[in-house]
Design goal:
Structural class of chain B: mainly alpha
Number of helices of chain B: 7
Helix content of chain C: 25-40%
Shape of chain C: globular
Strand content of chain C: 15-25%
Strand order of the largest sheet of chain C: 25-26-21-27-28-29
Order of helices and strands of chain B: HHHHHHH
Distance between the termini of chain B: 33 Å
Chains: A alpha/beta (190), B mainly alpha (142), C alpha+beta (769)
Oligomer: heterotrimer
Largest interface: B-C, 24 and 34 residues
Number of helices of chain C: 20
Distance between the termini of chain C: 93 Å
Structural class of chain C: alpha+beta
Helix content of chain B: 55-70%
């Protein structure tokens, strides 16, 4: 398993270049929410230039307009590219499991946005959430066999159980981890 | 309840904010004019939402232009007032009567201006100046 | 064999087997009956797992009949292979199912956790307060049951319910109560809480003698009943709160949860057996429709009265859908499994929208008609047959099916028109009854006593209908489906635009549009009948019913508080021809406005309504200035009660989660310091005070002192509220302040000539001495 830790500074071209997807690998992008969203949008845009992309929005964070702007900057056929991106949203952890189970094994890459978000919902008992996560990850491994798969997630907050992320990192083949930069010491002039 | 994409108001505010650096570097008086443009675009958010354009800023620009044009019409009219009722409607935001009178005035003065380009095979005939042309659908500027 | 006729009051699982029914007999007695009521649930999934489940169920102590069969799942085109389990002992089913779900968590289950009243309704067409005829044997076991009315009748003979009301003399959150008031239709008592023994003995006697069907309380859920139950325990004088012998009351804990984008707080609850306990302070929307509304909701949703009074309208709609589904032989899923079908990013941008919300033409307008679609979204669901199972993707259907489909404007969605959907079937009788009720209300004279009942029922219906659309898109709704939700909004936008086009084609100016309504005007039109042709044209073009809400003498659309050029869709006020007011988004309508400010704002509105000529300031301005001066003087001289200065705000999160505490949070912190902990979703009441922390919570043991009130903050609120109303009439806030504070001059000294049309000119700058 490869883990690259980067500071989450200046989202954009630098980061994008390093997010190269290898076939048959489950990639994990671990970053704070906004950075995660931005990076996955850039990644989606890059992939959509050359083929179909399947998005599973598991955190209600699909940035449609951001994606359109990205594509517009990169190609004049941005509308066609936009049409190659398909999105399905899951609002509960049950729906995440259903969506992944129903996804067909084909060659177009699969990006799952903010996979763990719905699994932090306390209204569902933890054992049940763990079971659903296991099934979802198994389905992702299945999809990996034919397509490139990338999943994004953020670090749990204090109240959220850390084991969900541990399970996910355990299964991921390639992990890119972006931490919040620590606030720098203010420069003193005197 | 399943709303994923930001509302048109949020998108608009986001666009407005992305111009903050540009705005800051403008002179104070120019800043006010820029704000006017954005306030103008704000009037047509519902139509922008309905348009569902993937690049909403293009629609906002068009809205700004729309309001600018209405100002031009108003001023052109004020320079040449001839119908008190139409003016009152203009003030209320309804430009229909004014535009009707505009096109009528144009036809009366210059029949060639409304000459419809002939299709292949149909007999060419200049439009009858005495008869009003069927209107192209009058854009309602409410 | 006994034959009984009466009204069904309560229905619940018996401890031993079957269910208990409490009937209010036509003979005046209350009858306790029992009935055999086996519960069936289903499991689907892989055949191997189902075989294991079969063996597991057979090994359980409860008596279960098992069968393999096929049943309909609304999200599957073909029937699903299921294991059917029929549990003969009603009360045992939930426990059995819990064990099953723990052992086999991955299987889809159906009909597993439904309310008993819902199941009963599906089989026997019963509902709370239904008039029915029952045949029972000598042990009181029901042999046959026949219903004699339906929830959809307008004037069913009302059941002779016996009511008893109990309330403490003061809000327990605010101060410790010292007495209880107990009232029925015939008697009324006051008991001191200092003497528990006589209190309990008397209360017990009253409960036994009055034997109420409905126990109405204030704070009964959160304080009164728990207090009385504890007291009864301490003194060993049990209170017969339940009519059903040998049972404890049901207690439920308080909770805060996220729903519909907000934090909602649900207080503790106490439910009784054999009678209804309704707590007016903890009942959902009780101030909107009262007890009559609760009755109507129970009838229409088939949920028990005590349940329906406390749950959100969403649960009511869900229950209605379940009854329809069961009757149609459609299984009710235990968990919402179904997920969205993938769409292209472009389709997502088109589909993920709400209703059309326009920006109005700012300012004052005369003779404006407000035209609204009647229950637009539910009507759309019914008219266009939108339901989770009717939304189809033509790519998955054979070409021969295409004729059945109707395309939803620009979305890549098609609606099957052939089979009537679950949702339209559920909504149809409700929509019909609502319409009938509206017609009746329009005809009834103002003094008719039935008005109040009809009004309450209409309000209850309104809440159900308003919720059913949101519920369609709700992530946990069992029969929810986001595509159906999006189809409804797409139709909504289309129909509103067609209405706009109809109006414009007929020469109207459209001043404003908001999701399901338009404000239009046309020169020379001011009578109700003149707008009839427009209404007909709209209905012709859209297929949906539309009505004239009213004609405004004048209506003012307000700009944004931050920028006067920017219109705001939901802030306006106006007077209808009949003199009634309508306002949205302004201070009087907001919870966080103190009564002192709302009252003045209403006085100002009144002055405008009474003004003979709204163009001439002298007909209203003097009165308004007087109101403002009077209010300010009262504030300055301590003549305003602290209660009228209360601000009420909701706590949006836990105290610890605030980075910079809002005034509400600071007030809640004060309460927490004296042991009164508030949960997110609860309201905090406080006044603004001088110095730090700037607030004083209302429910503190020490009431706030008038001297410590931050008068300046309240003055700011008052002027803002006044300016809101007067701004469309050409008066700016600063101008208003100047006039009010200048105590020397009375404005009427100036001739009306100066007052008329002083819009932008500062011509009348009164000098402050």
């Amino acid at each position: 398993m490869n883990t690259n830790a980067h500071p989450a500074t200046g989202y954009g071209r630098n980061i994008d270049d390093s997010l190269q997807l290898s076939p048959r690998q489950l990639h994990l992008v671990l970053a704070p929410h906004r950075a995660q969203r931005q990076m996955m949008t850039v990644l989606t845009a890059r992939l959509a230039l050359t083929g179909r992309v399947r998005l599973v929005d598991a955190g209600n964070c699909f940035d449609g307009y951001g994606l359109a702007r990205q594509l517009r900057q990169q190609t004049s056929y941005w509308q066609a590219a936009l049409e190659r991106v398909s999105v399905a949203r899951a609002f509960t952890c049950y729906q995440v499991e259903t969506l992944l189970t129903e996804s067909v094994s084909d060659f177009s890459p699969v990006l799952v946005l903010n996979l763990l978000d719905t699994f932090y919902d306390e209204n569902v008992r933890l054992p049940e959430r763990l079971r659903l996560l296991d099934v979802s990850l198994a389905e992702l491994r299945r999809l990996c066999r034919a397509a490139s798969v990338a999943v994004s997630a953020s670090f749990p907050t204090r109240d959220q159980p850390g084991e969900l992320l541990e399970i996910l990192t355990g299964v991921a083949g390639q992990v890119w981890s972006f931490e919040e930069p620590q606030p720098a010491e203010p420069l003193r002039l005197f | 309840m399943g709303r994923t994409l930001p509302s048109v108001t949020q998108v608009f505010l986001h666009e407005q904010q992305s111009f903050l650096r540009f705005r800051r570097a403008l002179r104070r008086s120019d800043q006010k004019a820029l704000d006017d443009l954005f306030a103008a675009a704000h009037k047509h958010l519902a139509a922008a939402a309905y348009a569902s354009h993937a690049l909403p800023f293009e629609i906002f620009l068009l809205s700004m232009l729309l309001e600018e044009h209405k100002q031009v019409l108003r001023m052109r009219y004020l320079l040449n007032p001839s119908d008190a009722a139409a003016l009152e409607q203009l003030e209320q935001g309804d430009s229909t009567a004014y535009l009707d009178s505009l096109t009528a005035a144009v036809e009366a003065g210059n029949p060639a201006a409304h000459h419809v380009p002939e299709r292949a095979g149909s007999p060419a005939s200049p439009p009858d100046p005495g008869r009003s042309e069927p209107q192209a659908s009058t854009p309602d500027l409410t | 064999m006994v034959e009984l006729k009466g009204w069904l009051l309560d229905l619940f699982a018996d401890t031993q087997s079957g269910i208990v029914l409490w009937l209010i007999g036509e003979d005046g007695q209350r009858h306790r009956l029992t009935q055999d009521f086996p519960i069936t649930f289903y499991a689907a999934g892989e055949p191997a797992r189902l075989r294991h489940l079969w063996r597991f169920l057979q090994s359980q102590p409860e008596k279960v009949e098992l069968k393999r069969t096929e049943r309909r799942d609304i999200f599957s085109p073909k029937p699903v292979d299921v294991l059917e389990a029929q549990v003969s002992q009603t009360a045992a089913q939930p426990y059995l199912f819990q064990r099953v779900a723990r052992e086999f968590p991955e299987l889809p289950y159906y009909d597993a956790d439904l309310p008993i009243t819902t199941r009963h309704a599906a089989i026997y067409n019963t509902f709370p307060l239904v008039h029915c005829q029952v045949e029972a044997d000598e042990r009181g076991v029901v042999q046959a049951l026949k219903v004699l009315d339906t929830p959809w009748e307008l004037d069913p003979p009302p059941p002779p319910l016996r009511l008893l009301a109990i309330e403490p003399d003061v809000d327990p959150a605010h101060a410790a109560p010292t007495a209880l008031y107990v009232r029925s239709m015939s008697v009324s008592y006051r008991f001191s809480l200092q003497h528990p023994r006589p209190l309990l003995i008397n209360l017990r006697a009253i409960l036994q003698r009055q034997d109420p069907d409905v126990l109405m309380t204030a704070w009964g859920d959160t304080w009164l009943l728990p207090y009385l139950i504890d007291l009864a325990d301490q003194w060993h004088i049990p209170l017969p709160l339940n009519r059903e012998p040998g049972r404890e009351v049901i207690r439920k804990d308080e909770r805060s949860y996220q729903a519909y984008g907000q934090v909602i707080y649900r207080g503790k609850q106490v439910h009784l057996f054999g009678r209804w306990h309704i707590d007016g302070c903890n009942a959902m929307l009780f101030h909107e429709y009262g007890l009559e509304g609760v009755y109507e909701l129970a009838r229409v949703t088939a949920l028990a009265g005590q349940t329906v009074a406390r749950v959100s309208p969403g649960s009511g709609i869900s229950a209605m859908q379940m009854v329809t589904a069961l009757r149609l032989g459609i299984m009710v899923p235990w968990h919402k499994q179904q997920a969205e079908r993938p769409k292209s990013a472009l389709e997502m941008m088109q589909a993920d929208q709400g209703g059309l919300v326009y920006q109005p033409l700012i300012g004052l307008h005369r003779d404006v008609a407000e035209v609204d679609f009647i229950s637009m979204y539910p009507s759309i669901m019914r008219h266009f047959n939108i339901s989770p199972e009717t939304v189809a993707d033509p790519n998955t259907m054979g070409r021969d099916q295409y004729a059945r489909l109707e395309r939803v404007s620009e979305l890549g969605l098609w609606i099957d028109q052939e089979t009537s959907g679950l949702i339209p079937q559920t909504l149809a009788p409700l929509l019909d009854k609502r319409l009938e009720l509206k017609l009746r209300l329009a005809e009834l004279p103002a003094w008719d006593p039935r008005r109040q009942t009809y009004q309450a029922q209409a309000t209850a219906h309104k809440w159900l209908l308003v919720t059913c659309f949101g519920y369609l898109g709700y992530k946990n709704a069992r029969f929810g489906r986001i595509e159906a939700h999006e189809a409804v909004t797409a139709y909504g936008r289309e129909m509103l635009l067609r209405a706009k086009e109809a109006a414009e084609d007929m020469g109207y100016t459209v001043l404003h549009m908001y999701v399901d309504g338009l404000w239009v005007k046309k020169k020379g039109l001011a009578e109700v009948k003149s707008f009839q042709p427009l209404l007909e044209e709209i209905t012709t073009r859209t297929g949906l019913p539309i009505a004239l809400d009213g004609i405004y003498r004048w209506v003012a659309f307000l700009p944004s508080r931050l920028d006067e050029r920017v219109p705001v869709p939901n802030r306006y006020f106006g007077v209808f021809k009949d003199g009634s007011l309508k306002m949205r988004g302004i201070e009087t309508r907001r919870h966080d406005t103190p009564a002192w400010v709302s009252n003045v704002q209403m006085e100002i509105m009144d002055a405008l309504v009474q003004a003979s000529n709204v163009d001439d300031r002298s007909t209203y301005l003097p009165k308004i200035l007087k109101s403002l001066r009077r209010a300010l003087t009262k504030l300055r001289t301590g003549g305003v009660r602290v209660e009228d200065l209360l601000i009420s705000q909701t706590l949006s999160r836990e105290l610890s989660e605030y980075r910079t505490p809002s005034p509400a949070a600071r007030a809640a912190a004060q309460l927490a310091a004296v042991g009164k902990n508030l949960r997110p979703g609860q309201r905090v009441r406080f006044v603004y005070t001088l110095g730090e922390p700037g607030v004083h919570a209302w429910d503190l043991p020490q009431p706030p002192e008038l001297r410590s009130i931050d008068q300046e903050r309240y003055r700011v609120l008052l002027f803002r509220a006044a300016a809101t109303i007067l701004q469309p009439f050409g008066m700016q806030e600063q101008d208003l302040k100047t006039r009010v504070i200048a105590n020397a001059m009375d404005v009427t000294f100036f001739s009306p000539v100066y007052l008329k049309g002083a819009t932008n000119k500062q011509a009348l700058k009164i000098q402050i001495n």
